[in-house]
User: What shape does this take?
Amino acid sequence: MTMRKRLGAAVAAGAAAFAMGLGGAGIAEAKIQPVDVSCTNPSGNEPGGQQPTCKGGAHTQETENRNPSGHAPPGHN
Assistant: This one.
C-alpha cells in the first residue's frame, strides 16, 4: 500500500511540474506585430490627411513593431 502511495505521489508531482512548465511558456509569449505609424511620398514628406495608413499608389508605408500593450519593444524596430 505504501509503495502505491509513493508511486502515485511521484506521478502527481511529475504531472504538476509538466503542467506548470506548459503554463509558464504561454504567459511569456507576446505577439509583436507591425503597426502603421506614418506614410511618406516619393519626395520623403508625409502627405496631409493620410496618416497613419497610406492611401494611394506612390506612397511608402512606415511601420513600427509593437507588443499588445502598444509599446515598441527594445531591439525590434
